[in-house]
Design a protein that fits this description.
Layout (H helix, E strand, L loop, with lengths): L4 H8 L4 E6 L3 E11 L10 E10 L3 H14 L11 H18 L8 E11 L4 E10 L6 E9 L6 E2 L1 H4 L5 H16 L24 E4 L3 E6 L12 E6 L17
Parallel strand pairs: 3-4
Antiparallel strand pairs: 1-2, 2-3, 4-5, 5-6, 6-7, 8-9, 9-10
Length: 256
């Protein structure tokens, strides 16, 4: 299978598509898809790989943002590879080939779907949402989200502490708990641990992925972060109307 990799990758070329989008910084969308039937046995699905990304205009800022996006999007097993779809596909298929050597009688329909999407793009912030769905054997697939905020003036990554008013950490934690309960339809009096959540010394930890979006502060708790896999992600947005005492005034996207 691996010796035919070059031809499979060439076959993927027509599936590269591009479309123009414009908000503040200009960018385009691009898709890379690959489907390989490695086993003719009935019920065995092909290996599938799909990567959807965004490419910012080829300026100094755009190129710097693209490098940051590609480093995250094309990372495979914590290796950023050569930051392109072909190198990613080659590594993915090589890993599948190693799997077949170890388990020749257990072929599986490996698949991976990765996306990078712009969820905020204005003069003050650019926020990218990264999504990954992968199945490489095991009891269940893995799904995760990552959020990244960038300064559109210099392409530097912006962290949560950069946009918070000093002393607003605990008020933000309380807001996160309130909106987590709303998103899960859990009453304010219910014990979160009894509802299946994992707390830190009785308190809800702050999510690892928090970033500004067009509608507010996006908060994502990935699987296993505060709850078992079966409970899925907790994904909600705290509206800007709740954030005037949490976020620095100059960072609010729609403030003049």
């Amino acid at each position: 299978m691996l010796k035919n990799l070059f031809f499979y990758l060439l076959a993927a070329l027509p599936l590269l598509t591009v479309g123009q989008k414009t908000d503040s910084l200009s960018y385009k969308s691009s898709d890379f898809k690959l489907s390989i039937n490695t086993n003719q046995e009935e019920g065995i699905q092909p290996i599938e790989l799909s990567i959807s990304s965004v490419l910012f205009t080829d300026t100094i800022i755009g190129s710097s943002i693209n490098k940051l996006i590609n480093h995250k999007l094309y990372s495979y097993n914590n290796d950023s590879l050569n930051c392109n779809g072909f190198a990613f596909a080659a590594s993915f298929l090589a890993n599948y080939g190693d799997f077949l050597k170890d388990f020749p009688d257990n072929p599986m329909n490996w698949s991976i779907d990765k996306k990078a999407k712009v969820i905020l793009n204005n003069q003050k912030l650019v926020t990218i949402e990264f999504f990954e769905f992968s199945y490489e054997g095991g009891a269940h697939p893995n799904t995760s989200f990552t959020l990244m905020m960038l300064d559109p003036q210099n392409a530097k990554e912006i962290h949560l502490e950069d946009i918070l008013i000093p002393g607003s950490y605990q008020p933000l934690v309380k807001l996160c708990e309130r909106y987590l309960r709303l998103s899960r339809n859990i009453s304010g009096k219910a014990n979160l641990e009894e509802e299946g959540f994992w707390l830190d010394k009785g308190a809800l930890p702050l999510a690892e992925n928090i970033a500004l979006s067009n509608t507010g502060l996006r908060v994502i708790y990935n699987s296993y972060e505060i709850a078992p896999y079966a409970m899925g992600q907790s994904d909600f947005t705290i509206p800007y109307s709740e954030l005037s005492k949490i976020l620095k005034p100059e960072i609010l996207p729609y403030q003049k």
